[in-house]
Design brief:
The chain has 57 residues and is of the alpha+beta class. The protein contains two helices and two strands, in the order H-E-E-H.
Length: 57
Amino acid sequence: MSLVRCSVAFRGNKSHLPSKPCTVCGLAMSWRRRWAKSWAEVKYCSEACRRKKTARG
C-alpha cells in the first residue's frame, strides 16, 4: 500500500525535474517529455525567443 501512496504523491511534482535558463530571456525552462532526446540542444523557451536570437546576436 505504501508503494501506491508514494507514486501518487510524486505525480505532477516538477520540482525534481532538471531545468536551465533560456539563452535569450533567461527564463527558467523545466524538462519536458518531448525534449527528452534533445535536452542538451534545447536553448530557447519559446518560438518568440528563437526568432529574437538573431536580433540580439
